[in-house]
């Protein structure tokens, strides 16, 4: 019997990993050939940040999870082959970042991850990415 993406992909695992800055668990949720695309003020649609492969994505999550910040996941919508959610982040200095993420799922893993994010211009003078 075939297994659907929703039977294999557990959104709660993703949510817990993000909210607890667990880079290893996050990396384990991706397919080997996964792709991550991030669009924000510094990486516009004409030139987004694109990470190809599980190792590059794991390095991204290790960096993000090593930062002194909090993460809150909500507004999730989960389907058979796609999930979407909003992540709200806060740094101790008052900088807030909001990201809208869409995940394409394949065989219970994230195959493509697309993020559009924005941060407080005033309190985040350097335009950090989350």
Automatic annotation (TrEMBL):
Superkingdom per UniProt: Bacteria
Q: Which Pfam families match?
A: SnoaL_2
UniProtKB keywords: Plasmid
- Which positions fall inside the SnoaL-like domain? 16-113
* Keyword Translocase on entry: no
Q: Is rRNA-binding included in the keywords of this UniProt record? A: no
Recorded protein name is Nuclear transport factor 2 family protein
